[in-house]
Structure formats: C-alpha cells, structure tokens
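Suppose you are handed a protein chain with no further information: no name, no annotation, nothing but its sequence. What can you learn? This example shows the usual starting point.
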Amino acid sequence: MNNVSVDSIRKNTWKKKATIITISLVSLILLIRFTISFFFMQSNNISNYIILLYILGLLSLLTYINRSKEYDNGIFVAILLSFIPIYTRASISGGLDSPVIAWFTILPVISSFLLSRERTYFTCALSLAFIVITSQFSIINYIDLPIEELSSISKILIYISIIVTGTIFCLGHGRSREEMMNRIEDQRMSILCSSRNIELSQLASGIAQEINNPLAVLKLKAKKIQKETLEDAEIQDSIETVISMSERISKATKAMKNLSRTQKNENDIPKESLDYIFENIMTLCETKLKYSNVELKVKNEIKDIDDYKLPLKLGHILLNIINNAYDAVLSVANKWIVINVKEESGLIIFRISDSGTGISEDKQNKIFTPYYTDKSNRTGLGLSISKNKLINIGGDITLDTSAENTTFVITIPAEKSDQNNTNKI
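A reasonable first move is to predict its three-dimensional structure. Written in structure tokens, the prediction is:
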C-alpha cells in the first residue's frame, strides 16, 4: 500500500490551513491585547513586552509554515513558544491560583491532535514542568512586579476559551476514531478482495494467452487463403473480415492483459501514463459505445499529464464506472459520458458524469455496499471492489450528490515520474 494516500494529503492540507488560521487569530488577539494594554490603559509592565515578542515569533512562524511543506515543526515550535506567555501571565496574575495556568493542561491536547506521539509526550512533560516552575519559581520573585488580580470577566473568558478549545480538539479526535474504524473496515474488505483480484488477473492473463495462440494461427491461415484466391472478390472480402475481427479480438485480449498486470509486492504498484490506460480502456469498450451511439469525451485540464504515474488498477476502475454509465444512458435520447481530469492540492481528480436518469436518494448510500444492485444480471460487487482497489493504492471514490448529473469522483495522489519509463502499447 502506498505511503502517500488521498486521506493523508487531505489531512495534511487541513492541518496546514488550520495551523495558519489558528496562528493568525492568536497573533491578532494578542496584538489587540497589547495595543489596548499599552496605548489605551498606559500599562508598561514586562508582560506586554513578552507578548509583543511572542507576536513577532508567531508571525515569523506563520511565514515559515506558509512557505514550507514541513509545517509540523512550525506547530511544535508555536506550542513551545506558548509556554512563555502562559508562564509570564500566570506568574503575574497569581501563580497556581491564576486561571491562566489551566492553559498548561490544554497544550498536550492540542499537541496530541496535530503532532506525533513523541512530541505530545514531550509537550505533556513540559506542561508538568512549567506548572512546578510557576508554583516554585514565579517571575515576580525575580522582578519587582505587583500581582495583577484578574477581573471576573477575564476569568470567565479564560475558562470559556479553555473549555471550547478542549472540546473542539476532543471532538476532532472522535471524528478521527470514526474515520479510522471506517478505514479498518475498508481495509478488511480490501484484504478479502485482494486474493480474488489476483486470481482474476491471472485468469485474464491466461485467457488472453489461450485466445491469442489460436488467433495467430487463424490469421496466418486466413492470409494464406487470401493469397491463393486473389481472383474471387467475395472470398477476399470474407477473408478481410476474418482478419479484421481476429485483429480486434487480439487487441481486446491484449488490452485486458495490459490492465490485469499484477503487482510484484505490496509497494510495487504497476503504473502507466494516462494515454496508455485510456487506450486500453477504449479498446475494450469503444465498439459497444459506437454501436449504441454513446458519446464518450475525456477533458484533460492537466498540461503535463504524461509526467504523472497513474496506478494501472485505475484502468479497471474507470472501465467499471464507464460500463455502469453506459447502462444508465441507454434509456435516454441524448447519450453521453464525460470524464474530466484535473489536479488540485496535490491530488489528481477524475469526475465521471453521464446523461442518465440519476441515482435516487435512497440508493446513494448503498451503492458502495458489497452485493447491492438493482439489476438482476449484476453481482453488486463492481463499485465495492473499485472502492477497495482505490483504497489499496491510496485513492478514494465518492458520489457527488450535489452535481446535476450522476457524477462519480475518483481521487488519487499526484505523483510525477520520468517519461522514459512509461510503457506504450
């Protein structure tokens, strides 16, 4: 399974945005606090200057995180810097009796949601150490400053902000646990399907071999007969048909074999260019699309799409979605299927839409369930297997219920490669 997945990319993107927004809001709040205290209340104590230094530190971190992909370090440094103003403010406003000290208990919660386990342990240990430091080594013991008693409103606001912050991050952990349970279930289904997929791939490869061998003989004999019957136009026409149909069968079996290539190990996932994948897909479905007057369009919005490595399994998944769309549009007058390809936030997104009658609301939540189907001649495994295949290669598939037409959205990590390593048919 890939180390990089759609879930990890989305999670990292969300963490980065959340970190930037959080640091920006904290910087703004502290700046307002400093401005009011220094300019309007004419307060000239040392805590104001520490807050100002902390603001400058946060702004520097904001610049670093915005430009860097390694934003985890920025979050960790921001949490570490938070101990300084909390310690200062707690010391000046009553030490252990100050409600500000409760922020020491909330920092490990924030760290557990955003950072690694090791850094969370370190933050927890540092929080315990700073509680002891605040109680035994208060800053007012070394600087001649009076204790500033916080007003009731300030205490209420501090407690509210701590409760809200803790609740938000704990709820975030709850959502993470639900997502983890869903991923475990998806992986369980993936394991159940993986052995069957290998067997089907081997079967497809074997069938292709068994078909191609007699086809080669058939084509050879047909060409021999063609040379010996040059004067008979009717026989020549029949032989041309035999050769043409043989080449079509050979091309279809080769495409089936190409898309059924199995991976050698868990981390070696076969990958090809988009052109390679779509050429094999079209070989397998263009005939029935043509005879049924179904128009298939591929709209690629990525200029350097050939620089990307796409999992070969994507061909099976797209073929399954196209076949489902084909069945859906047969009953309508205007028959079309559109595949839109674009890149967004480190992801390649395929949107497959069709002109069919759509999927009713009561079926939308069931379509990825194994063995669910509304057709008597289907097994109901197509979409569930496709979903598990995507999970296995770090991707995802969803139904866009907000789209006007039936639209499936396939998302995979964007990974570039050397064009020279891309195979062609």
